[in-house]
Amino acid sequence: MNQGIHLTLLMGIGVPTPVPKPVIEALESVEVRHATDQPSGFDLKFKVSNKSPLLTLLTLMAQQGPLIRTIIVVTHNGRPHVLMDGVIASQELKPNIQTGQSVLHLKGEDLTSVLDLIKIKGKSYPGMPPSARVLMILGQYFQYGIIPVIIPSLVPDVPIPTEKIPSQNGTDKEYIKELGEQVGHVFFIDPGPVPGTNTAYWGPDNHLGTGPPLPALSVNMDAHTNVDSLSAAFNGSQKTLPILNIFIKEAKTTIPIPLPDISPLNPPLGLLPIPPKKIDFLKTGKDNPAQAALKGISAAVKSSNVLTISGSLDVMRYGSIMKARRLIGLRGAGLTLDGMYFVKSVTHSLKKGEFKQNFELVRNALVSNTPIVPV
Predict the structure, then answer these.
(1) 128 in Cβ contact with 137 (< 8 Å)
(2) Which of 10, 103, 174, 294 gives 170 a disulfide partner, CB atoms 3.0 to 4.6 angstroms apart?
(3) For residues 348 and 366, what is the distance between their CA atoms, to the nearest angstrom?
(4) What CATH number has the domain spanning 5-114?
(5) What's the CATH number for 118-204?
(6) Domain 214-233+306-366 bears CATH identifier 2.30.300.10
(7) pTM of the model
(8) What's the CA gap between 127 and 125, in Å, rounded?
């Protein structure tokens, strides 16, 4: 890899260990995808001679599928960054008769796929609020180094066993996401902070970022420019105004209440917010007003991002590793586009001598609301 960048690949059943040097030498490319709206994944491509015993070994490992845990670590300027902790999902072998070499393509997913392997029917959780149920489920996966970060709902929902006993029907992943949708929470697993550990988050959709702001992206600034390409897209037509219908039993009437897309966890990142173009009447007849409001605010936040920035960069030129679910500044792109953004997705692409990233940033308003950005 590039000077200042070192790749470590760990694979194995149960506790993964660093792969032998010949495996690293056969590794042609690595791609890791992180996004806020879908599970993370990775692609590994190995180029091996058709007669090499290494090809047989890698193919046999790939056949184990979800049993093969894979950890990808990049050390940048002496600091390790865990890009992925997941399992192999599929494999494809492409032999080349003319060159006598084969390309083995391994595709994998993050550890949420492990929670999606076994369907469970009728498992009961008497007297347990949703947050306790999620914590109990995640506690079963301690062998994967999962550290639960559970944020209870603002509206406690503790079922009375004599009236209702909640039960699980589906995989652990499906049930955790179902519980999140009931209170407007999201669920994802982030690799790290150290190799072998993972942070499993179940809580409100946090657009303040999961850490300090990343170093700013700079364009049109001569030697300070650190971006290879950049494009902006504006889509105000997708923004929706959820309407919550609250039934007042005493007055026997329904009051429509519009829900804002701005909240403490989704602050305005610009000076000029865009008004919604659509109205969505929520179907929350089975929820109490507070639960319905949390669902509505979550729906409003999802449609609030009207400005999208897409681009690519070279990590060595940028000087850091961009990560999803963080805030980042942009400067040099003009008054309308400069300012702070939320990192929606990042794709890491590594080859020998190269480490590049493609990214997508989003914002819920136009024109920067801050005179400077962290650099």
Answers:
(1) no
(2) 174
(3) 28
(4) 2.30.300.10
(5) 3.55.50
(6) yes
(7) 0.90
(8) 6
